[in-house]
Design goal:
This protein is an alpha+beta fold. The chain has helices at about 5-10, 15, 40-60, 70-75, 110-115, 145-160, 170-180, 190-195, 200-225, 230-245, 305-325, 330-335; strands at about 65, 90-95, 105, 125-130, 165, 185, 250-255, 280-285, 290, 295-300, 355-360, 365-370, 390-395, 405-410, 415-420, 430.
């Protein structure tokens, strides 16, 4: 192993501590690598993420983490082979208390590719593997038993086979094979979420870049939103814009208009936009894996007093919540300013879940913190510097059909928070005003 590769495997104190420069604006970085300014340092980010995971693992009862969730695999190994594998449970990675390096089992030739192009991973730790592909390969065929024995052997070599093994998601048949070997399987997702909740400066730069792409997408929506355009037309335009500007996954574009706004259906259709419609959109996409969740509401041509009024309420609720965000406060302190479910037409908080709401952003759409009246009042958790989350509100209009939906993405700084969702939303935007 050469000196550069050896250095990439080291985990130091500097890699654990974020390097925030809150006295400077967050940069809106280009996607090119350049020699004349520092942009995202992906190897530094890899060391940071692996260091955070090892730190969280070291604080737990577990001797190892065995992860099948693609977000956790990427966090530990800095590998990704495409969105097609997100729901296949076709890859996995292992990190033990006693090793500095993760082991990755990947889909066929991807493992060979990693050995050639991923020098931050030890070549011998890049293995090919296949389990069940969500049950399509029957467990009785023996692949799961084979890999379970391989994993047990690695745990034994690391001296942690008698300690609990934290697992995030897994096919039941594979869990049964591991348990047959005497392994104590416990919840490892909480360990990984603890590691992922504080973002490094590099991660924040990527989240900011992802949000900047959505800023541009909303300028396109503002231009194209007019009578005769359908919800799915807007979805198609936004998908093209985002992929042309470097998105690696447009997870969803929710497009809801007119009478579909109330209640909120969380989807899109081929409904045709009409004059006076209120319409809101949520753009969920990622840049280098880092996600956005970013609502904006528009009116088409004109707006009624009822539509203006619901927008003002949604804006007021979100602004009151944002004012409370700073390190050391709790999630309960923030969601106290959210209206209770009956105040905006819902029978209980579960029915209104996700409407007055906040959630962490990172490699997954929903990370820590989660802020909601469903859980936060009874289970308050601390807001910390370096968290990044989306905060969203919803207000139905008195006309019984329209509604406003606003969402802002924030970075928690040392003194408060900073917005990274910058498309104007202080007042109701009127697209193609008459």
């Amino acid at each position: 192993m050469d000196d550069l590769t050896r250095d990439l495997h080291k985990i130091t104190a500097d890699d654990i501590n974020p390097r925030y420069k809150w006295d400077r604006p967050l940069p809106a970085l280009g996607i090119m690598g350049v020699d004349f300014e520092e942009r995202v340092d992906y190897r530094r980010m890899h060391r940071y993420r692996l260091g955070r995971a090892k730190q969280a693992l070291g604080k737990s009862e577990c001797g190892a983490l065995l992860v099948f969730d693609v977000n956790n695999i990427r966090y530990l190994t800095s590998t990704k082979i495409g969105e097609w594998e997100r729901d296949k449970i076709s890859r996995w990675a292992l990190l033990t208390q006693t090793s500095d390096d993760p082991i990755i089992w990947d889909f066929g030739s991807a493992a060979v590719h990693h050995r050639l192009y991923s020098p931050w991973l030890k070549p011998e730790n890049c293995k090919a593997g296949v389990l069940g592909l969500r049950g399509t390969i029957q467990p009785s065929f023996g692949l799961m038993a084979k890999h379970a024995k391989e994993i047990f052997g690695l745990l034994k070599d690391a001296g942690v086979e008698k300690m609990p093994v934290g697992i995030d998601i897994i096919e039941p048949a594979m869990m049964f094979e591991l348990q047959k070997l005497g392994l104590n399987i416990v919840d490892g997702q909480q360990i990984m979420l603890e590691a992922r909740e504080i973002k490094s400066a590099d991660e924040i730069h990527l989240l900011n870049r992802a949000a900047a792409m959505v800023d541009g997408a909303y300028d396109l929506v503002n231009e194209k939103l007019r009578p005769g355009v359908r919800e799915n037309d807007i979805v198609a335009m936004v998908n093209e814009f985002l992929y042309r500007h470097g998105s690696d996954d447009v997870e969803a574009v929710n497009a809801i208009s007119g009478e579909r706004c109330n209640p909120h259906p969380h989807n899109f259709t081929d409904r045709m936009i009409r004059p006076g419609d209120q319409a809101f959109f949520d753009i969920l996409q990622s840049f280098m894996g880092y996600r956005t969740c970013y609502y904006r509401t528009f009116n088409v041509g004109r707006a009624t007093p009822a539509q203006h009024d619901c927008y003002k309420k949604a804006r007021e609720w979100i602004d009151l919540a944002i004012e409370r965000i700073k390190p050391g406060v709790t999630t309960a302190h923030i969601c106290e300013v959210f209206p209770k479910a009956p105040e905006f037409g819902f029978p209980d908080e579960i029915s209104a879940f996700g409407l007055q709401f906040a959630h962490g952003l990172g490699l997954a759409l929903h990370e820590r913190p989660i802020i909601s009246r469903v859980i936060s009042m009874e289970h308050p958790t601390e807001i910390k510097e370096g968290m990044v989350f989306a905060i969203e509100t919803y207000c139905p209009a008195t006309d019984g059909a329209s509604a406003a939906r606003i969402e802002e993405e924030v970075v928690v700084t040392d003194k408060g928070c900073r917005l990274i969702s910058l498309f104007p939303a202080e007042e109701l935007p009127i697209a193609n005003r008459y």
